[in-house]
## 1
Amino acid sequence: MSAVVVGAGIVGSSVAYHLARRGVEVTLLEQGPAPATGVTGDSFAWIGGSGVDWPGGARDLREYVLADYRRLEAELPDVTLRRTGSLSWARTPTDDSRLGPGQFVIGRSDIAALEPNLRHPPEQAVHTPSDAGVDPTALTRALVAAAGRHGARVLHDTSALSLQVTNGRVEGVLTSTGLHAATTVVLTAGTNVPGLCEPLPADLAIAASPATLARVTAPPGLVKTIVACPDFEVREVREGDLLLVVPQVEGSAARERAAQDTLHHLKTAFQGGDQCRLLGYRTGSRPMPAHGPVIGYATHDRSVYVAVMHSAICLAPTAGRLIADELVTGRPASELERCRPGAR
Ligand SMILES: Cc1cc2nc3c(=O)[nH]c(=O)nc-3n(C[C@H](O)[C@H](O)[C@H](O)COP(=O)(O)OP(=O)(O)OC[C@H]3O[C@@H](n4cnc5c(N)ncnc54)[C@H](O)[C@@H]3O)c2cc1C
């Protein structure tokens, strides 16, 4: 088989990498000048249990997420997770019945030990020791580079315009730079997948859900874990660089205010926080299928395959492995059963 993969965000990069290392002839097309120029580059990239939604078939993939990340770290020396664990708390006390596997409620002194710079640790918080974070841009670029080392052709500044259909069968992708033929086209273009995949399978209604991420410089080690509290979510992505989720509001003036307000909350919450400086913020458009991940063939003749999911930083290593396996072997992956287009 041969594959054209459209879109080099985290999903397309993972699919291209896993296909290429199985010996498939792969072409990866990206409209931007580099990988991760879509929403992936603006992600908070929290990997694990507490900060992430697991809708629909995502729940069936959850148990593999950390193991697939461990595998990627072994396969790709440039990929490293920050295994810091997370601390979350709300304005009302935590209800124990809502705890997931590997989560614990801890009290003030344990919170203070994990986050010694917090000025006023809350009475209690949910601690998830296995939670981690990754640099989403570095990870995506590492996957693309490794796909290239396994023989994949990677084309930037190449925009897929439409599917090439001959006698009712899709035979490749028409792009701004010409036709790229393949036996299978894999659409991983995030919010642009519906526009490329016509006619649409019934449940390919994919919302584009905005979310804003700020980048902040800070004293190294100011924030030790992933902290999710009523006023902000923050984590250190690399020494002295924080990612800060900004509440979503409409309009650029309101967004600027929200970014400044969130920074203010961060500064007052941490001792030493007054040295934090806002580097900038961007709003990304998260591809959000209505009922959880949509992963599978979109046409009966199996010439077009789609892969769109939310919380894709978590899911992409697992999804890429399973997708490559079923494309190469022709055996459907049972783990993806509830993710199929039209499964609901
Ligand atoms: C603020 C924020 C916080 C988040 N936090 C988390 C989190 O903690 N954990 C988590 O798992 N997820 C999180 N997410 C969601 C996560 O970032 C997304 O689920 C993920 O990045 C989607 O990856 P993707 O590859 O599907 O999309 P994209 O990254 O958008 O990739 C699609 C690629 O396709 C390219 N493309 C589009 N159209 C074409 C075309 N016609 N031709 C060629 N190329 C094309 C685009 O340029 C893009 O590079 C967060 C997102 C945001 C914005």
## 2
Amino acid sequence: MGIVLGGMTEVCSGMLPIIDGHNDTLTRIFSEDGGGVSAFLNGDDGHLDLPKARAGGFAAGFFAIYIPSKIKNPADEPARSEGGAWTFTPPSIDHEWAASETARLLDCLDELLSAAPESLGLCTTVDDVRASINGERLGIIQHIEGCEMISPDLRELPGLYERGLRSLGPVWSRPNVFGTGIRFGWPSSSDVGPGLTAAGKNLIVACNKLGIMIDLSHLNRAGFMDVADISSKPLVATHCGCHALCQSARNLDDEQLRIIAESNGLIGCNFFTGDLRGDGRFDTDMPMSRMAEHIEHIVTVCGIDHVALGSDFDGAAMCDDLGDASGLPKLIDLLRDRGWSEHDLTRLAYGNWMRVLDATWN
Ligand SMILES: [Zn+2]
């Protein structure tokens, strides 16, 4: 199915409108010490809020319902900024707690949407996303990152779809009833653990039928290959970097990049410094050109039609030169300076997302 791209470039006061593949803003602002609805509408010190979105041309994005693991003692986490090899598997979470947290976050999202209906809108159709690209309202695409709130018989899935869910990642970086998430680590590989369970395979088929996008980010290699075998839709990794440039366990190797491209899917390049730097550290004093190198590696392996942006705003460390969502035009300008055409920048910013959503949701 084709889509109309014409007329969509001259919006957001001349800025290139951007569809972003992933953020954890809902989890951040609706946490115990988050600022809630007013923090998002008026701005705070996080990566993404309404003023920063407007300043950066952030037109629409995948807003994750993400339930963090309860890490009792932060000292149990490896000292990742000191250099050297490390791995870390976050503890599993139980269904009841995930379900109650999901219900709470969905209520919070409703509250946010009804507080500023002229400025924010839930995107459940391709037309909704197109309206956001045209500058009408900041578009919120509802995504679940780690499906612990869904039972193995998938009984919650239709209700979540009704409530606006249009994208999910079966696992975060921990095992659950659907599959095995990639533990965090550097230098490391995603080839750890078994593939999808029977329930995980059923989840992929059910999402294909309902029109819910499947996100491969955080899925181990065997699970990735299972989704590639089972799914009838373009394959998508909403926020990943390139393993060829940074051996983070969560990054995609060139074979995985090619499999995504062959499905006519896309990779949203992650902005997380720990997945971009080559040295396994999380430090934010990374030149923005490193982001361009990962983006351009995806283009080299996959072609321009299979690359997009997947920031991980409010869920990961960003490089100092970008800062937050208001810095997005700096990244676009940097790529333009490196020789990118306006046509290719448009593909990266939103055109590829529109093609994939059109093929996935309809
Ligand atoms: Zn993530």
## 3
Amino acid sequence: MTRKLQVVAVSGGLQRPSRTLALVEGIVTSMAQRLPIDVHLIELGEIAHLYGGITHPAALPDEVKAEIAAVESADLLVVASPVYRASFTGLFKHFFDFIHYEALIDVPVLLAATGGSDRHALVIEHQLRPLFSFFQALTLPIGVYGAETDLQSYRVSSPALQERIDLAVERALPLLSHRNVAISLGVQA
Ligand SMILES: Cc1cc2nc3c(=O)[nH]c(=O)nc-3n(C[C@H](O)[C@H](O)[C@H](O)COP(=O)(O)O)c2cc1C
């Protein structure tokens, strides 16, 4: 039996328009050109007011609980945060603090971030990758970082960023075997 890959994309952008959201959309568009996927998009800026002041998971509103459940059941995660003060945002971390520590074991995760300049591009390797390593997730080999100049008019505007997105997706394809969905992907070795 075949089914589409259930992709959950988390954009950590806290404002609209959002370059981080534009980057996430660019990534899932590239995926959709190569894979049969269903995409569930979570914009943290839209729900941050519902969980920002909450510390105990039981106190979360149902809307946020549903988004956490979506993350915990995804076949593939795309996660992206703007860089705030040289790291992912506090609200990005706070959202993932609610994710069960064993829910993402072996789940492929494509890491992405946006920043004001290229200076903080290693936020992917130094901040995002360790967080998802804690979850024992399968962080995909290529992360995608976009600076403001790559995302003019809140879209993927630079050919170099588009190439990086496409390469990250291509390199991910052979690794998408989590939860036995690879059989439906037509993945070329
Ligand atoms: C509070 C705040 C802190 C920021 N800190 C950094 C930073 O340390 N390094 C950086 O490269 N960009 C920094 N930026 C710029 C944002 O990362 C950048 O504009 C990003 O693309 C914004 O994403 P968004 O449009 O999804 O909000 C900061 C922006 C804000 C609002």
